[in-house]
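Sequence in, structure out. First:
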Amino acid sequence: MAAPQFDKFKKYFNRTKRPSIQEIVREPTAGGIVFRRNKAGEVEFLLIQDHKDRWTIPKGHIEEGETAQQAAKREIGEEAGLMDTEMLGWLGKIHFRYRRIDKLVLISQQVYLIRVTSDGEEIQKEEWMNGIKWFPFFEALDAMEYEDIGKLMLLAMKRIRQENL
């Protein structure tokens, strides 16, 4: 009888221990569900593709002395090159966390509904991004990597339809 093969299981027992959490860091962020109407009058949403190929919305840290609304508009300008935008209101707040070596980072993200007042063709991605693109609604929902943002996108579309934005 052959000896049992334990090599397959070693990976479960020889894990290198990660450093324990030494600090909890809170990071307030803001972003926007950005939309436009294309030449045919159809609603399109802007998504950016991060360095890990995940599609999401433009967002970033709220800087000192800045409101969440100001941060959302600034980040959309910085990340997408869109300066002609109109803030239409708050959609919701998302909470998530991740580990950064020995820190637990708690993110709270304010999300706003933002309409582009230009044609939106001036979008340009930042160097760290893998992509930036306008998507029809259902394609944007399908591409979106984060369920919580997807839910806010549904809420955004409902508001766009109800208020004929």
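Second:
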Amino acid sequence: MVLSYIGWRVDEFTCDGQANFWFKFTNILVNTAYRMSTSTTSFVRLFVYGTLLSASKHPMAQNLRQKTRLLGPGFFPGRLYDLGMYPGAVYDPVAQSNVFGEVYSFTESGWKRERKTLDDYEGDEYVRSVVPVQTADGLVDCWTYLFKPPTDSLPRIESGRYFG
């Protein structure tokens, strides 16, 4: 069985018998297995689109990978801007373009421990907001960091994908 959505193809789908599903997604950038839990434990989702992506070598991205679970790819309607060493995203529910990234899952306690560190990392240029993100499982609400300053003079990343 081959499933697909928005440029991603699900190549494999398996269950380890303990309510954990494995999906193998393929796109032009990555070919990685993502583990998705069906546990009833409460989780907080974080959508990342820049230096915190799983392919990033940034120490903060490495820290995130150690303390969370990568659920897989996602996107929201909006625009992505090139700020030099990192991108900035603007959520716009009526945009004809999308911002692509990945969704991570924190336990409630893990989120409480890590959100100040993430807020400090993102700095004053960003505001932490909840946005609806399209994933393989449908729309899910995720925290993300949206760029606050005016974007009129900033170059857009037309693809909506940050390549670092």
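Remark: The CA atoms of residues 5 and 141 lie 19 Å apart.
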